[in-house]
């Protein structure tokens, strides 16, 4: 039986029942991540500048707005399909924080990306950029550093911490008795590659390796603990866990490839060296709209 509550029915007793693979949710989740998040800067670059003047929202901004609405909705639907009752209050607070952080990031990221059309070089720090260090009065530089802080630090933290927390909360309900072990269908195996590649982009571009690796270690510890109780991952848990494993391999390959890049080494000092793909792009790949420079 179920016990009614203000937020719907709550299971009186959780049972470890294998849940079918959520192909629809994982497919939509992966697709919108690629289109609305990864595709944001690409849309801004390839679409004509005349369509989106620099003093108006860009195509990437509209992508970001759609992402800020669709992603929390999909996360809530994913939580709803968990066979285990999950902490509702924590989920709601995480979703609210996620939306707020992603919205803060939308504004900061919009301005920072459009500065590129004025000659801003993403592989340099704010004060080292030629178009910034010559500003007068110098207090304007502090304002741009504040904008960068909202974009790269506060916005990312309030966006990604609840995002990974919700994924982990969902992961805690993805266990089933060993006798009923779920297997990943072919569709899940086909989605693992795009999903892992997106998480690689999320971790490297968002500079959230520590958050990602702590989440991954927490997943490993939970899997080990549940295995001692005779429980194993179902197909959804396997999909998420395998995506995180492949992501770690992709990050290692990315760092190894750019290990001796002196310019990016200067941009990302410290023990943890993980360059952003966008910084690599502006440094090595493209001059970004030559016509805009004129």
Q: Spatial order of the strands in the main sheet? A: 1-2
Q: What characteristic shape results from the CA principal axes?
A: globular
- The oligomerization state is single chain
Give the SSE string: EEHHHHHEHHEHHHH
Number of extended strands: 4
For the record, the count of structural domains works out to 1
What share of residues are in beta strands? Answer: under 5%
| Structural class computed from helices and strand pairing | mainly alpha
Mean pLDDT: 84
Largest sheet: 2 strands, antiparallel
First-to-last CA distance = 70 Å
The share of residues in helices is 55-70%
Give the number of helices: 11
Explain this structure to me?
InterPro entries: CLN6. Keywords: Membrane, Transmembrane, Transmembrane helix. One of its GO terms (biological process) is lysosome organization. It comes from Urocynchramus pylzowi. This is CLN6 protein. By secondary structure, the chain is mainly alpha-helical. The chain has one domain. A two-stranded antiparallel ribbon has the order 1-2. A hairpin with a 2-residue loop joins β1 and β2. The longest helix is centred in the middle third of the chain and has 33 residues. The radius of gyration is 21 Å and the shape is globular. The relative contact order is 0.12. The N terminus and C terminus are likely disordered.
């Amino acid at each position: 039986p179920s016990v009614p509550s203000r937020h719907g029915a709550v299971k009186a007793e959780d049972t470890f029942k294998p849940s079918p693979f959520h192909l629809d949710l994982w497919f939509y989740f992966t697709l919108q991540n690629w289109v609305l998040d990864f595709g944001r800067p690409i849309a801004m670059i390839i679409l004509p500048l005349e369509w989106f003047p620099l003093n108006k929202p860009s195509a990437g901004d509209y992508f970001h707005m759609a992402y800020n609405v669709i992603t929390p909705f999909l996360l809530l639907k994913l939580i709803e399909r968990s066979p285990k009752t999950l902490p509702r209050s924590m989920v709601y607070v995480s979703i609210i924080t996620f939306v707020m952080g992603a919205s803060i990031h939308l504004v900061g990221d919009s301005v920072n990306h459009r500065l590129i059309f004025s000659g801003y070089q993403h592989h340099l720090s704010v004060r080292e950029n030629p178009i910034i260090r010559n500003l007068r009065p110098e207090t304007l530089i502090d304002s741009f550093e504040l904008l960068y802080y909202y974009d790269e630090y506060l916005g990312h933290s309030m966006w990604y911490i609840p995002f990974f927390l919700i994924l982990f909360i969902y992961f805690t309900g993805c266990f089933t008795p060993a006798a009923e072990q779920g297997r990943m269908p072919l569709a899940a195996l086909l989605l693992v590659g795009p999903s892992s590649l997106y998480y690689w982009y999320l971790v490297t571009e968002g500079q959230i390796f520590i958050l990602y690796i702590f989440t991954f270690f927490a997943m490993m510890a939970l899997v080990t603990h549940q295995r001692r109780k005779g429980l194993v991952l179902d197909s959804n848990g396997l999909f998420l866990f395998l995506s995180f494993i492949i992501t770690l391999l992709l990050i290692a390959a990315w760092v190894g490839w750019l290990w001796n890049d002196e310019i990016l080494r200067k941009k990302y000092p410290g023990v943890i060296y993980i360059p952003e793909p966008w910084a690599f792009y502006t440094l090595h790949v493209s001059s970004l709209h030559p016509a805009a420079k004129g």
